[in-house]
Design a protein that fits this description.
The protein is about 25% helix and about 20% strand. The chain is α+β, with helices and mostly antiparallel strands. The protein has a single domain, classed as Gcn5-related N-acetyltransferase (GNAT) (Aminopeptidase). The chain has a 5-stranded mixed β-sheet with strand order 1-2-3-5-4, with helices on one face. The mean pLDDT is about 90.
């Protein structure tokens, strides 16, 4: 995880972190390990406190796994990859990703 610290214009209200990599070895896939790791990521983010956690995932195995966990893909601008995000705040105060500069 890479925490970006307070947002330049909005301070802690849009504090963001990037999940750089999350992998499970093939022999433990589909056993809840990835889901448990993502729950740990979310718990860590809530303890900071962060508003957003984002990451990029390939449109193959990784993307399918994140979607099975309930995460929705968005275009990333990178061929073969999607953008994913956990918004931990009030949906009415959401600031779109490009405006946050992360």
């Amino acid at each position: 995880m890479q925490e970006y610290g307070p947002h330049l214009r909005s301070g802690n209200s849009h504090r963001t972190a990037k999940l750089n990599d999350l992998y499970t070895v093939a022999r433990v896939r589909r056993q809840g390990v990835g889901r448990a790791l993502m729950q740990g990521v979310e718990a860590w983010a809530r303890s900071r406190p962060l508003r957003y956690v984002f990451w990029y995932a390939n449109q193959r195995e990784a993307g399918l796994a994140y979607q099975a966990m309930g995460h929705q893909p968005a275009p990333s601008g990178q061929e073969g990859y999607d953008f994913y995000e956990i918004d931990l705040g009030d949906p009415a105060l959401r600031q779109p990703h490009p405006l946050r500069g992360s």
